[in-house]
Description:
Strand content: under 5%
Oligomer: single chain
Amino acid sequence: xxxxxxxxxxxxxxxxxxxxxxxxxxxxxxxxxxxxxxxxxxxxxxxxxxxxxxxxxxxxxxxxxxxxxxxxxxxxxxxxxxxxxxxxxxxxxxxxxxxxxxxxxxxxxxxxxxxxxxxxxxxxxxxxxxxxxxxxxxxxxxxxxxxxxxxxxxxxxxxxxxxxxxxxxxxxxxxxxxxxxxxxxxxxxxxxxxxxxxxxxxxxxxxxxxxxxxxxxxxxxxxxxxxxxxxxxxxxxxxxxxxxxxxxxxxxxxxxxxxxxxxxxxxxxxxxxxxxxxxxxxxxxxxxxxxxxxxxxxxxxxxxxxxxx
Length: 309
């Protein structure tokens, strides 16, 4: 039972981090109605900016404080992501207003490749470290209940808490603020939103900035765990099944979908891997997403689309 609970908890922690990346997909889709294939590149680009600024600032300004370096690096990286959001809206999205969804989809693919190349040009292509002080040592709990106790990763626990807080803040932003309601209106109908005075360009800059903030937090957490390397953008591919499972328009769905996939990956690898030959953790999420596409295409919490003719 103890080993099962350790595996379950590890899956929940991994799933929360998948959810954090998936939220970026949901944000862009809610505001533009397009699936943003550049979210993985945004996570990598933001993590590279954070890692390199934290490394450069102490040399540039002559201080030794790690906390100050991380705070300044976070502010600078966020400024970079806001600037990227403004440029994406000005140079790409503004030209594609009211175009077909597939056109915007191809635009996000182009943005992804551009950010990958720009990241290498500006920040280099080595493996970089992000040290934000997250605890690395495992925590032993319930040693009086289970023989040997349960080993819980403190880093995963802190990361899950940060992800949960961000999810709550974003949900409140969409539901309780005028800007959040405007974002939902733009997602429903670009032309109708413009006709009632909602500035489409400003809304897109805001939502890409918020998605950039989400990507930055996800990049810091994953970079702290794995190091900042270009394979980091592949981690974001695990968020694609998450949004399919939870629903493209639902932030709570991104959370539930991430948790289900995180737990399913860990448990299936441990308990089904010996029977099926291993490697289940690699493809489990995509097979589950395929099943949902066949049975419930809108996902668990997505809005069912009804076309009236």
